[in-house]
Fold:
Amino acid sequence: MKILLQNTVDNIAHYNKLRNVNPKLKVIFSIITLLSCVFSKSIIVPLIITILMFYLTLFRANVPKKIYLQFMGAPVGFGIITVILMSFIYNQGEILFSIGLFGFKISASKYGVELGMLIFSRMLGGVASTLFLILTTPMTELFYVLKEMKVPSAMLDIAMMMYRYVFVLLDEMIRTENAQKTRMGYRNLSTTYKSLGMLASNLFIRTWDRGELLFTTMSSRCYNGDLKILGKIENPKIVYLLMCAIFWIILITISYITKDFKLLDYISSYY
Structure:
């Protein structure tokens, strides 16, 4: 698990083909696409953004397809479940079909399916935009950009500490789990519960100790509540900012033109 997280987030972010693109430009581009997905009134714009981000991440940045699909798997599964549930929960308007379940009749409405697909498309576009940013930009550069965007220092410090120590704690957990397995842990259900309890308690104690040690170490180095981020990132060129602005205008225009687009109506018009 540690190897999976560290390789996909850290290594890919440092060694992809879009690594040298200005981080500020990537942040602006991702924010534009994310906001366009959130406020879109039809599925067209989120689907366009999903396809675009899919192309940029896989074929321009050359992120491994298997790893990217693993990241997208959970949102896709959750989105499908959302469409199914909303089609039955929002059962107003035209009814598509009805089924009997435990003596009750539940109906799926056209409105519910359309609303579920809109939320699904927004989620796909948002996840694709976020993955593009995370998998092509190292976290240190993201923290620098956030600092220049005047994000509160306390939030940035907590985020940097969390990002640094999540891998340390994962490594600690994996080593403890392996040690337990060599001592006949996880043999059956009973020993599994016991081993998991010992693992959780041991990890909590070690986490607390590391936190105390970190606080003492930082205090001895005159920590005043503000972690310094070294380096400097140049502002993107005006021409690229103009291209982002034009792209956003195009997305807004498409969103306005397709605001009344309904996928089910479009499909039914051919049958």
Q: What stands out?
A: The two ends are 48 Å apart (CA to CA). Residues 151-236 form one domain. Residues 189-220 form the longest helix (32 residues).
